[in-house]
């Protein structure tokens, strides 16, 4: 019986050493995250650390006010109505680096809006000239679970 317990304890110790590290403390490196306005979108850069799992993903979400221009079917342009838009950017799922730390750069795609409510008529075409953002929320997911979240000014 004693020998069996010894073998079992040894097997458990080997299993514990072989288990992959978990992302218990994935986080944004303090002061490293920054977001900038690119006109009709934004770009965020930074660094995450404490990654111990197999995959991670960084996403950024921001709400902004789009300045819109409308074009009627005859080709005449008029000022459209400012329209609230939600814009996102993502790193996509990435393999966790061996050292558990990674830099990121997220670029949103230029946002578009439909003719309603931006233009006076639904058959007109809306064109986004610029978007003004306040803040972006950055979220770090490790192994599919949220690990950390911060809010950054979009400058």
Automatic annotation (TrEMBL):
Give start-end of the signal peptide.
1-23
Which UniProt keywords are given for this protein, alphabetically ordered?
Signal
Cite the PROSITE patterns for this sequence: PROKAR_LIPOPROTEIN
Q: Does the keyword Signal apply?
A: yes
Q: Could you tell me what this protein is called?
A: Secreted protein
């Amino acid at each position: 019986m004693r020998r069996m317990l010894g073998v079992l304890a040894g097997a458990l110790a080997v299993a514990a050493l072989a288990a992959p590290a978990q992302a218990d403390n994935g986080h944004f490196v303090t002061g490293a995250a920054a977001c900038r306005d690119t006109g009709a979108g934004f770009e965020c850069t930074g660094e995450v650390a404490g990654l111990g799992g197999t995959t991670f993903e960084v996403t950024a979400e921001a709400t902004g006010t789009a300045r819109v221009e409308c074009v009627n079917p005859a080709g005449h342009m008029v000022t459209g109505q400012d329209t609230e838009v939600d814009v996102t950017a993502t790193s996509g799922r990435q393999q966790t680096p061996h050292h558990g730390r990674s830099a990121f750069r997220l670029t949103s795609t230029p946002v578009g809006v439909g003719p309603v409510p931006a233009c006076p008529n639904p058959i007109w075409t809306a064109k986004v000239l610029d978007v003004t953002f306040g803040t972006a929320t950055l979220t770090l997911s490790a192994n599919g679970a949220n690990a950390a979240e911060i809010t950054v000014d979009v400058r």
